[in-house]
Amino acid sequence: MAMAHHFRPFCDYRAKHFAYATSDDGKVATVTLNRPERKNPLTFDSYAELRDLFRGLVYASDVKAVVVTGAGGNFSSGGDVHEIIGPLTKLDMPGLLAFTRMTGDLVKAMRHCPQPIVAAVDGVCAGAGAMVALASDMRIGTPSAKTAFLFVRVGLAGADMGACALLPRTIGQGRAAELLYTGRAMSAEEGAAWGFFNRVVAPEAALAEAQALARSLADGPTFAHGMTKKLLHQAWAMDLDAEIEAEAEAQAICMQTRDFHRAYEAFAAKAKPKFEGN
């Protein structure tokens, strides 16, 4: 007889530079970048830890949605100048490529984990930190959020961690080109108008708003949400005919779930459906 397995490998996850906590029922996980005295920069270790966390969430079947935020009024200042940029100037080409591939693997892990990710962005959101926000599925900002893809300001290309793919698809080609060529900060007002932020709220409300959105997703048809995330990702590499066929197959699979039947039964009974993700 087949047995269902539930994995929660990160319910007590410990990391050096970020905190991980789940809601009481384990369905919503909150990842908090936690070096507030330095505006939550990323290091070699934290890149790898975050990559491994999001890779592992593929198997954390009890976690249905994820929130990413920063401690102390800032999201993240990006790669730590002293702990990353300085050492990078001393690496050879194979070492540099290993590093840039690792940072890109963090974005891949975020895009491939089935849970929707909501970023709560306050204050500084720069460089690799901006990429973590961009790699999330949705973003809640605050009026003080300043988002900068500032790679050019340290003599690097704007092509970093998938920025040239993700940013134009989020805010448009011309706007993305401006931010990537100049490295200037995008204001919260611009971010909301351009579609980077789903909405902008008061700083004290941002985390609660992101967690409430994540909770609404976690209480929904989570198997179907995973399918939506997968197809949103795959659509970039498909023509329209292939995408329509992939969506037909995905929807037929979802129609076999108990959640689909629960929704119909609740509608017939004039009740609210209770989804269970199967």
Indicate the topology:
Blueprint (H helix, E strand, L loop, with lengths): L17 E5 L5 E6 L10 H13 L8 E6 L10 H8 L4 H20 L4 E5 L2 E3 L1 H8 L2 E4 L4 E3 L14 H9 L1 H10 L2 E2 L1 H7 L4 E2 L5 H13 L3 H13 L5 H15 L3 H11 L10
Helix pairs in contact: 1-3, 3-4, 5-6, 9-10
CATH T-level topology of the largest domain = 2-enoyl-CoA Hydratase, Chain A, domain 1
What structural category characterises the helix and strand content?
alpha/beta
How big a fraction of the residues is strand? 5-15%
Number of helices: 11
- Termini separation (Å)? 18 Å
So, the CATH homologous superfamily of the largest domain? Answer: 2-enoyl-CoA Hydratase, Chain A, domain 1
Can you give a write-up of this model?
The chain is α/β, with parallel strands linked by helices and 278 residues long. The protein folds into two domains: 201 residues, 2-enoyl-CoA Hydratase, Chain A, domain 1 (Alpha-Beta Complex), CATH 3.90.226; 47 residues. 46% of the residues lie in helices and 13% in strands. It contains eleven helices and nine strands. Strands 1-2-3-4-6-9 form a six-stranded mixed beta sheet, with helices on both faces. Strands 5-7-8 form a three-stranded mixed beta sheet. A hairpin with a 5-residue loop joins strand 1 and strand 2. Helix 3 packs parallel to helix 4 and helix 9 packs antiparallel against helix 10. The longest helix has 20 residues. The radius of gyration is 19 Å and the shape is globular. The N terminus is likely disordered.
